[in-house]
TrEMBL record:
Keyword DNA damage annotated: no
InterPro entries: HAUS1
Source taxonomy: Eukaryota, Viridiplantae, Streptophyta, Embryophyta, Tracheophyta
Superkingdom, taxonomy of origin: Eukaryota
Organism: Papaver somniferum
Family membership: Belongs to the HAUS1 family.
Keyword annotations from UniProtKB, A to Z: Cell cycle, Cell division, Coiled coil, Cytoplasm, Cytoskeleton, Microtubule, Mitosis
UniProt keyword Cell cycle, yes or no: yes
Protein name: HAUS augmin-like complex subunit 1
């Protein structure tokens, strides 16, 4: 074993406790001697001394506690041996020594002892066995109740799992159907888009035609205030003017069959022109009066 005086101690550092260093050295020597080895060389620092002193304190406390427990167990073992010797003497005195018992009796006693050890009882009295069995029965009832609860919960979870699997299967089937319908829906959407483009073009065309018709009606003096009755009245005036102008037109057509007399023809034509101009003027006055009345 190496000399402990060879261990280097940094005396220049503050915080070192010589008492703690001595206790640590003594503890290290005792621990390494117990296994037949020398204490290795290392530098004693504040941190290492503190850590080793803590380990030494814990080890000594545990060693002391183990010594107390070992002493108690040795004392109990001595008492159990003395009691076993006394019971053996009593059994021999009454002729119940183990050597004199039949094999089946020894086997029965060993079974009783094993059962007592299994039930964790200190004696083999009937009351102790009954209490132990009752305790085991209670534990068994508790375990069975817990097992029933677990089985019930497992059944509920199994039911939930089956429902979840069924729901998942339904959702997968629905997803497959939707994926199959995507192509059809896309084709229908493209058809609708094409129709929408055509309808927008038609809408622009109809709006342009409506604007043109509206401008045309404005040019001829038609407004939205003219009612159907006024149009019927104007149509009746037109028919009356046609009745008045028809004889004149017929007369003019009859002149085409007359012999060519330039003077008479000129007079007749001039007369008919005046009559036709008067009829047109009358028609215009009637139309203007109808429009003025509607406004």
């Amino acid at each position: 074993m190496s000399d402990l005086g060879d261990h280097s101690v940094n005396e220049g550092k503050s915080g070192f406790d010589s008492t703690r260093i001595a206790e640590v050295k003594a503890w290290l020597v005792s621990q390494f001697e117990s296994v037949g080895k020398d204490v290795p060389d290392f530098e004693y620092t504040t941190r290492s001394i503190s850590h080793l002193h803590s380990l030494a304190s814990i080890s000594q406390a545990k060693t002391q506690a183990a010594g107390i427990v070992a002493s108690d167990l040795r004392q109990k073992a001595m008492e159990y041996r003395s009691q076993a010797a006394r019971i053996r003497e009593i059994l021999q005195s009454v002729g119940l020594a183990q050597e004199g018992l039949p094999p089946n009796a020894v086997t029965s006693v060993q079974v009783v002892a094993n059962v007592a050890n299994l039930l964790n009882i200190r004696d083999t009295e009937m009351s102790s066995f009954l209490v132990a069995m009752a305790d085991i029965s209670l534990r068994k009832s508790g375990v069975e109740e817990k097992r029933a609860n677990v089985q019930k919960e497992s059944k509920v979870l199994l039911d939930y799992t089956r429902k979840a699997i069924s729901r998942l299967t339904y959702l997968k089937r629905t997803l497959g159907q939707l994926e199959d319908d995507v192509a059809t829906c896309e084709g229908q959407m493209n058809h609708w888009k094409t129709n929408l483009t055509i309808m927008l073009s038609k809408e622009r065309q109809y709006l342009q035609q409506f604007s043109n018709y509206k401008a045309l009606l404005n040019r001829v003096g038609y407004t939205s205030d003219i009612s159907h009755g006024e149009l019927v009245e104007m149509d009746e005036h037109r028919k009356e003017l046609e009745k008045k102008t028809k004889p004149i037109m017929d007369t003019l057509r009859s002149y085409q069959d007359l012999p060519p007399d330039k003077a008479l023809a000129a007079l007749a034509i001039e007369e008919k022109r005046r009559q036709y101009a008067a009829a047109e003027k009358y028609l215009e006055e009637v139309l203007h009066s109808a429009l003025a009345t509607s406004e």
